[in-house]
Amino acid sequence: MLKKIFVLFLIFLGICCYGGCARHSLPSDLPNLVSVTITVTQEGKPLADALVSLSPIDTNTKWSAIGRTDINGNTQMSTNGMYNGIVPGKYKVVILKEETEKPANPYEGAPDPKVDMDKYQEWYMKNESKIAAMQHHQAKVFTFVEEKYTSSETTPLEIEITSNIHQYNVDAGKIIKVKLKDHKK
Description:
Blueprint: H1 2-22, E1 37-42, E2 45-46, E3 51-56, E4 65-68, E5 74-76, E6 78-79, E7 83-84, E8 89-96, E9 98-101, H2 117-135, E10 140-143, E11 158-161, E12 167-171, E13 178-179
Parallel strand pairs: 1-12
Antiparallel strand pairs: 1-2, 1-5, 3-4, 3-8, 4-6, 8-11, 9-10, 10-13
C-alpha cells in the first residue's frame, strides 16, 4: 500500500513539475475541457488535504485528472495535472489521504550542553535507555481513507463528467485513521 501511494505521489509530483513548464502549450489532440469542482466528504464532513484522481473507465483514452482538496473538501480538477478542467467522460474516483506522525524527539527537554555540560550529562544518564528506545522508533504513517477507495481497481466511486455539470460530490466512506504496516523487502 505504501509503495503504491509513493508511486502515485511521484507521478503526481512529476506531472505538476512538468505542468509548470508546459502549461501554455496544449497538446493538439486534447479535447475541450470542462471546469469541474469535486467535493469529497466522509460521513458528511469535508475531507481536507486528500489527493483525488480520476481514472478514465474507457481504456482508449489517455486523459486522467488529479487534484488536492482544500479545507472544505473541494478541489479543482486538472487533466493530467497540467490543464485546468477535465475531458468529458466516465471516470473511477480514487481518493488518498495519508499523514506521517514523526516520532518524539528523544532529546526534548534536555539541558543545553553548550550552557552546562554537567547538567546535560546527568540528564543523559537518567534518560539513556529512553533515548535509545526512542531512536529506534520509525515515523508512523496513517491513512484516513478506506483501502477500497485508494485504487481504480477497487473503488466503487464513479462519476460522469458532462459539459453541463460542473460540481460533483463524492463520499469517501467512514472516517478512519489506520496505521499503515511497514513494508520491508
